[in-house]
Amino acid sequence: MVNNVQDSGSTAALFAQMNATAQAGSSSATSTAAETEDRFLTLLITQMKNQDPLNPMDNAEVTSQMAQLSTVTGIEKLNTTLQALSDNMMPSQSLQAATSMIGHGVFVPGNGIEKSDGSGYGGIELTQSAENVEISIHDQSGALVRNINLGAQSVGLVNWQWDGRNEAGVVVADGSYTFAVTAKQAGEPVDATALQFGMVNSVMQDNQGVTLNVGQRDGIALSQVRQIL
User: Which of 93, 160, 189, 191 could form a disulfide bond with 127, CB atoms 3.0-4.6 angstroms apart?
Assistant: First the structure.
């Protein structure tokens, strides 16, 4: 796990994975090149066996074909090596990007909202503009705590803040709550994804890739991050 600094165990695992990938790429390149050479030699031997004795193959032609084989094999090896380098760089870049998020707030898909220091934060992602968007906040028992009308909103990400009060204007206790989103356009429902806000506390690198610890949630993939604050 990475917590403000990169964990040595995760780093070792990352380099081990990179080395394994590089070795696999090298093996693949060797196999492909060998197959190409085998096909070429088979074709060349067949041509020589069936050539006209009175008009044998020209040495220059054979040399030219050998040169072409060398060029093709070299290109195959180069392409495989470049692909292996690219594949090796991606995990390292993902880990670096994730580590830079530690200590920052992010929005990820989820319907949780944490109230602390008198307020809570949430977000939504709209697939199209909506003329009316409403948020309903519930406590852990499912009871309604507060309705918030956000009015008309444009397509994309929308951030909102809860003042920590219920419908009667009374400040409720700090803790974990949930919320639901209702969005409509011309009376028809609009697809809206609830986004949960949280601080990135740590980063983990494993066989599944890089994941984040956001608030009280673990295993958040980088692809799930909708916004970084």
Answer: 191
